[in-house]
Structures are given as C-alpha cells and as structure tokens.
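Input/output pair, single chain:
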Amino acid sequence: MIRVTKNLALISDLLAIAAREAGRDPDTVKLLAVSKKQPADKILAAAAAGQRDFGENFVHEGLDKIHATAAEDLTWHFIGHLQSNKTRAVAENFDWVHTIDKLKIAKRLSSQRPDDRPALNVCLQVNVDAEETKSGVSVDGLPELAAACTELPNIRLRGLMCLPAIRQGFEAQREPFARLRELALQLERSGLTLDTLSMGMSADFRAAIFEGATIVRIGTALFGERT
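Output:
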C-alpha cells in the first residue's frame, strides 16, 4: 500500500499547485478519492495517510466498504446514477450524493434520511453538453429543480456537478466547467446558497480548478487499476 500513499501525496501536491496557479487557496479544493472497484485495504491505506472523502458509484459495493471501514469515520459520497429502488440505502448510509437530476429522487432521499443523521449533502448533476447518453438535469430545467430541492427537509443542496464530454487541450476543457460555474452563480443570484462545484477528474482537474472546482474526483491515478 506504499504506492497508494505515494500517489496520494503526489496528487495532493498537483491539486495544490493548480490551485495556486489559479490564484486560489489550496484548502478550497478537496480531493474525492473514487474507490469504485478498489479493495478496502487500499481505502484504509489512503485513510491512514490522511484522506477522508471517498466516492462510490455502486450502492451495494459502497455499503460493503462503508461497513468495512466504519472505525475510520470517513465521509462517503455517492457519485453514480441512482435508481429509485436504491435511494433508501443511500439515504441511510452516505453523507453526500452528487448525481441528483430528478425531483423524485431528491424527495425519496429526503423522506428516507434517518432522523438521527444530519441532512444529506447533495449536488445536482447538470448535463452541460446536452449529451443524450448521459444523465443530468438540463440547463433549462436546473432552476426549477434547484428551487424545489431547497424546500425538502432532510437534504441540503450544496452545489452542482458535471461530467462533460471529453475535450483535448486546457482551454477547451475549461469551457464546460466555466458553464457550470456560471449556472451556480445564476442560482446564487436568485437567492440560493451554494458552496460546491464537483467537477474535474484525472485528465482535466487543472482546468476544473481554474474554473472554481471545490471537489475533484480522482480514482485510478490514486489507487491504480480497478479490480
């Protein structure tokens, strides 16, 4: 597990460098370690090196890891497509959900969140490139969904998330992230309070940080190839 520890240190340094180049405080950028298809011992190795936030795409796999690492008091983010029949398990066990794109899902999460747990932190996934093959609320539908989510009692709308189409080159990569940032600013101007932009992965994190990313999702660069 020495490799995970070394990778974590390297990635953390790269995120900090990018933040400083963008004129930002490195502490405003959080690394979300995407542990999908990774064994629990690698998660524990990253946790021992100081990593606290982990992201899972699949509910049952995530539950197994949450239970296996319970003693570490980690923060767990659900970052996959969420089906209606899986919302209860997510509401009861995760701390964040990044992929809400329908009010039905938000309502279920709110009603199923246990009373003894703090409000579930959520981001709305926006289909910034209007790709037919990807999930996400449309740009036009975002204001209505965001406003409705703020009325639900057991979730807390923190911000927006996107998975843009692959682009080559730094400036091209910045475009969809700039669009998401502007959408967040529009919601704030309408009276909503947001503090999170979940955007950027291994290939484009620098562009995302330059456009205001507060959570960057990185997996295989940290843990190695998935099993």
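The domain at 2-223 is CATH 3.20.20.10 (TIM Barrel). The chain has one domain: 2-223.
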